[in-house]
Amino acid sequence: MSQKSKAEELEALAAARWRVAAVLTAGMLVTYFGFILLVAYNKPLMGQQITPGLSLGILLGALVIGAAWVLTGIYVVWANNRYDKALHQYRR
Amino acid sequence: MNPQQAQTSIGQTNYTAIIFFLSFVGLTLAITYWAARKTKTTSEFFTAGGGVSALQNGFALAGDFMSAASFLGIAGLVALSGFDGLIYSVGWLVGWPVVTFLIAEPLRNLGKYTFADVVAYRLKQTPVRISAAIGTLTVVAFYLIAQMVGAGNLIHMLFGLSYEAAVVIVGVVMILYVLFGGMIATTWVQIVKAVLLLLGATALAVMVLMKFHFNPLELFQAAATQYGPEVLAPGKLVTNPLEAVSLGLGLMFGTAGLPHILMRFYTVPNAKAARSSVFYATGLIGYFYLVTFILGFGASVLMGRSAITAVDKGGNMAAPMLAEVVGGTPFLGFISAVAFATILAVVAGLTLSGAAALSHDLWTSVVRKGKSPEHEQLRVARLASLGLGILAIFLGIIFKGQNVAFMVGLAFAIAASANFPALLLSTLWKGFTTRGAVASMITGSVSAVLLIALSPTVMVELLGNKTAIFPLKNPGIVTMPLSFLVGWAVSLLAPEPEAADRYAEVRHRMHVGAEADVPDSAATTKPTVASVASPGPQTT
Fold it and tell me: Which of B243, B300, B350, B422 is spaced 20 to 30 A from B323 at the CA atom?
């Protein structure tokens, strides 16, 4: 394989990782700041109880914690499968 | 049980607690003894030789992050104000995904011991390392002071020891871990502590939930009945949206700039292990915060707020008091010992990262220009650890009785404004220059310190002025963009062609580089690239 196509391959690899990282980071930012802004601007809504004992705020807060873990999981699964395979290909 | 009159042995000498704590110290010192025999090189001292597994590192990362402040502080905040504690829990967790996506892999592939390795990779070593070390040491100093003062108060309350004795014990044991066992011992201290903390918090939560048919909602409902439905709704914590966003930015990106957290990415063998370890850590920390939330509500329902504030106005004793109510004095002893152990472990991690900045960044790279022999680097690293440990004890005693809670916020703000922007720009932007990096790091540190000094926390609460010059308690919303902007503008003013030329190399190593670190595959990679690319001195 020539040097040039090798460089292009790395370029594509870097771009792919950056795209995934940027999308997931944006997802986390939107989720978290969405939660914070709801807390700041609409306290009565967040205090509404869905069932006795469970307010919307508590549910959403727990969901943000869950989302953080799921988003990290998505990245790890993507990187361990797709990205590492592509890297392996590149290293050959 | 009479909630308002809950008897507590907090404040008296608690022998169970002392026995539990001594067993923890005994076990961890045995680990240190074992680790000391394996700690012969700087790589073993700073990064445990890169031989920590992803799961182990996940626990160690969680251990570094779950401080006594977050355990006792969040439980107390929830106990006294309900829902608001969850806002902090969420904020302290959401930085971790960002660390995984943006920082973990480039850091692992480009660096050796400190994040300055990454920033300085294609830039001029001396100025970049000096400014990175300033940022690191400032963060470490503020975080250390907060931990030491917290330790003194906490141990004084829980064990009945004097404040000074507590600070000295924490300092001396921590120095022993770091000085002799280096990163190997520190990692295992973190793992043991993380496991104990998770087990202790879980056991406590189970004992609380037992009284509510294992249904958290029944517990929340009981709290709402006792204190009104407001406890389940946002209260006074977030009144100003700008403040909320600023706090959020600081917490989120501060995590991605804390030197003792970033250093952990060098202890694993490769980028894959680095990303997996954050996944484990995120799960453990998220679980821990949810459990802490339950503990806070349990404390307010089972003991009553007035009983909690009678012991400590800030509510910091809510979790230990709850332990005594549901599990008796032995369980109080166990939880107290875990809280003490927690401080010890966090302080050890901080000291090690400070020592890395002093030895690796300042001494080896700046003073000796990379020409320092291995045994000398190790000696400087140990001297630095000793010095930082003594300084920590000294500062802990000086700040006795001061309200230092704002210092944790300050440490996060500096980490988010000084360290994170430079780190991100150096990996993502070809046009980043030495001057840009230095300007960005200095601007971040100085503006964060300055704005906190002018904030209501310091000017109104601490100094008793009527108003503050800067209206927000958290400066992140100003200082973070400022640091990015200054780094970008200064880089554009005077481009640095050599730095831009080397970006291809950075990108290659950032993505492929991990392989160069695996010794048995070294033959397949170009050795010249690996040795030139490795920042800092190559001593074998």
Answer: B350
CA-based R_g, chain A, Å: 20
The beta-strand segments (E) located in chain A are 49-51, 54-55
Residues B103, B104, B105, B107, CA torsion sign: positive
Q: Which residues on chain A are in Cβ contact (under 8 Å) with B217?
A: 51-54
CA distance B174 to chain A (A): 32
Cα–Cα distance measured from residue B182 to residue B349, given in angstroms and rounded to the nearest whole number: 10
**Residues 6 or more apart in contact with residue B13 via CB below 8 angstroms:** B159, B160, B161
ipTM of the complex: 0.92
Query: Where does B183-314 show beta strands of DSSP type E?
Result: none
The structure's pTM equals 0.90
- Distance CA(A84)–CA(A70), nearest Å, equals 20
Residue A49 pairs in a beta bridge with A55
Nearest by Cα to B131 from B145, B115, B147? B115
Tens digit of pLDDT for each residue in B312-349? Answer: 888 888 999 999 999 988 899 899 888 888 889 999 99
pLDDT tens per residue across span B376-429: 999 999 999 999 999 999 999 999 888 777 888 889 999 999 999 999 999 999
Running DSSP on this structure, what letter comes out for residue B239? -
Q: Is B474 on the interface with A (CB under 8 A)?
A: no
Cα angle for residues A17, A18, A21 (degrees, 5° grid): 85
